[in-house]
Amino acid sequence: MVGRNFWAVPAEGGWEVRQEGLPDATSRHPNRDDAWQAANERAKACHGEAYLGDGAGGCVERTSHRVMPRKIKI
Fold first, then answer.
1. Residue 58 to residue 73: CA distance in whole angstroms
2. Spans of all domains in the chain
3. pLDDT tens digit string along 9-20?
4. Residue 46, φ and ψ in degrees, nearest 5
5. Who contacts 18 (Cβ-Cβ below 8 Å, separation ≥6)?
6. How far apart are CA 40 and CA 63, in angstroms?
7. 12-55 pLDDT, tens digit each
8. Which pLDDT score is estimated for 55?
9. Which of 24, 32, 39, 42 fits a disulfide with 8 by CB distance 3.0 to 4.6 angstroms?
10. Do strands 14-19 and 25-29 pair parallel, antiparallel, or not at all (unpaired)?
């Protein structure tokens, strides 16, 4: 699992963490902080990015856990 992105978004009765490209929620949480922490943990394990949604399709915060390639001289 490399480069998967996760969104923490408001949902009815709490917050959901969703993996980008999948139709169903990955997990449900009672508050924003728990959902944001879960999204970051999953993104870190998959070397992806975590996004905190604002509920209207926008992004409030973004964290990258990608491993960037090393720079080499040619």
1. 38
2. 6-64
3. 999 999 999 998
4. -105, 5
5. 6, 7, 9, 24, 25, 26
6. 7
7. 999 999 998 888 888 999 999 999 999 999 999 989 999 999 98
8. 85
9. 39
10. antiparallel
